[in-house]
Amino acid sequence: MDWRAKVELYEQIRREYEFGIGTIAGVAKKMGVHRRMVREAISSALPKPRKKTERPRWKLKAAVEFIDAILEGDRKAPRKQRHTAHRIWVRMQHELTECEIAERTVREYVHDRKIALGFIVRETCVPQSYTWGVEAQIDWYEAYADLAGERIKLQVFAMRSMASGAAFHCAYLHATQQAFLEAHELAFAYFGGVFRKLRYDNLTSAVKKILRGSRREETARFVVFRSHWRFEAEFCTPAEPHEKGGIEGEAGYFRRNHWVPVPKAADIDDRNRQLLEDCQQDEQRLIAGREQTVGAGMVIEREHLLPLASEGADLAQTSFPTVNGLGSVKVLTNTYSVPLPAGAQVQAKAYASSIELWHGGRCVARHERCYRRQQQILDLEHYLDVLYRKPGALAGSKPLEQRRHAGLWPPSFDRIWEALMERQGKQSGTRQMIDLLKLAQKHGHEKFQKALETALSSGCYDSAAVQHLLSAEDLRHAACEAIDVGALERYARPMPVMLEYDQLLTTGGGQ
To answer: pLDDT, tens digit, for every residue of 125-140?
Structure first.
């Protein structure tokens, strides 16, 4: 019987005893309860709390010594490498095969013992109040998503305003320093300004070394970035996540509501578009204890934020590699192709998702950043001039293999290549194929592929035909409209009529 039902029953018993039958035995018989309950109701209108019976744990008794020994040993172990209840239960399956105990029973006992041993300390937190535009908290958390049908673990950057409760989330494949700084700028744009103080954990992207007390040796790039955007940085005490409880709770809330079930997206950019929509959707929610919604708070807070800088900070990690004999440069353990002769020096800019190679004040190559080690990322277009001089190297070249693997070399390319070699010979036909690939650089891959497949469907296996189809739209001219010639109209003459001449030919044809 629940508490409310018991209270109401006590009231009926007391009323029946005082105004009804008036005897304990009579009330018990009428109400269908024990005489002991009638006596308890008469003595007090408030039912006594039910006693909790401590039942002996007969099955657990054989494993108590084993569990206690493990927990005692954890006193000397690092905090993050102590046994969980599940890990203890798994060990029991292998080391105490004779004990068949449910995992829930082990969990309850381990929880009680950890409290007794001081492993679990329940601290009292003090509620905080925040001024508009002053503080935001930042952290990374992990989440999984299905990108193009493959399940991938993503690193998610989160920034939360402590006054309005609004938050910005952005996902990356890796939590690099470039991603860390880039996400800051995206968050500033989302909030419409810069918070005066940002609170962090001791992230390696910002903190180089933890000194005594609250002092930190910060990375030079983070100091430059902070100076550019004019905010202050505060770092939490190591192993004290409650000091930034706002962002810790935000990560849990957002993961439960927007990462469950596991989301699906075409790629990382598509997933970030979804995350932005989720952040905007959360602007409609009302946090307990707040007078306005998250979105309304953002509007109020925007007036108190520092204005955005006129331009973003330089986020790239810069180096100056030299082009090697394979037409590529080494950037962060990987090599990337570049259309420059060997020995030329380039400026390499490493961003969160791309690598840019600059020479002579212009960007000569741009690659998607690879986070694996000792890889070659080669673009076939960077080797076309060399392959024109060495056409025999195209068939077995690694840039061509990578293009095939990326799905950028459809079967139609092989068909016209084989037809050109059959008509022109292997070397001459390959050179014509290279000339066609150069047209793709000028007109774009999609337009080039469409023109090539149009030529093949017409049964035309010639490079000149593909080139004509690519430039056919440029050869079309719009018809001119008739204009009023004014006074020149008097010089107009009628068009000649051939009817009389045709009649003459008809009548005099026999003479």
So the answer is: 677 778 899 999 999 9
Contact 326, 339 (CB under 8 A): no
> At 295, phi and psi to the nearest 5?
-65, -40
Cα within 13 Å of Cα(284), Cβ side? 4
Tens of pLDDT along 288-333? 878 889 999 999 999 999 999 888 787 788 889 999 999 999 998 8
Identify residue 355 by its one-letter amino acid code.
I
Residue 23 lies inside a defined structural domain of this protein = yes
269 and 353 fall within a common domain: no
247 in the same domain as 348: no
Q: Yes or no: say if 498 and 456 are a contact pair by the CB < 8 Å rule.
A: no
Among 297, 272, 300, 276, CA closest to 285: 297
3-state helix, strand, coil in the chain (%, to 5): 45, 15, 35
Q: Which amino acid is at 344?
A: A
Residue 148 and residue 241 in one domain: yes
Residue 280 sits in the same domain as residue 329: no
106 has a pLDDT exceeding 80: yes
Neighbours of 67 (CB within 10 A): 22
Q: In the chain, what is the greatest distance between 2 CA atoms, to the nearest angstrom?
A: 152
Residue 81 lies in a domain: yes
Which of 133-142, 207-216, 230-239, 360-369 is predicted least confidently? 207-216
The helix (run of H) or strand (run of E) holding residue 357 is strand 354-359
What digits encode the pLDDT tens for the residues 7-53? 888 899 999 888 888 899 998 998 899 999 999 888 888 888 777 76
Structure tokens at 236: 């939490």
Asked if 201 and 229 sit in the same domain, the reply is: yes
Whether 297 and 364 share a structural domain: no
**What are 384's two structure tokens?**
């076309």
Give the residue numbers spanning the domain of 7: 3-43
- What pTM did the predictor assign? 0.64
The H-or-E segment that residue 359 falls in is strand 354-359
Is residue 35 located within the same domain as residue 168? no
On whether both 177 and 281 belong to a single domain, the answer is: yes
Alpha-carbon span 305 to 198, nearest angstrom? 12
Which phi and psi (to 5°) does residue 57 adopt?
-95, 85
User: What confidence category does residue 337 fall into, taking pLDDT thresholds of 50, 70 and 90?
Assistant: very high
Count structural domains, the chain: 5
At 281, which CATH number?
Answer: 3.30.420.10
86's CB contacts (< 8 A; 6+ apart) are 103, 107
Cβ neighbors of 1 (< 8 A, separation 6 or more) are 9
CA 50 to mean position of chain CA atoms = 51
Distance CA 158, CA 217 (A): 23
156 in any annotated domain: yes
- Residue 204 in any domain: the answer is yes
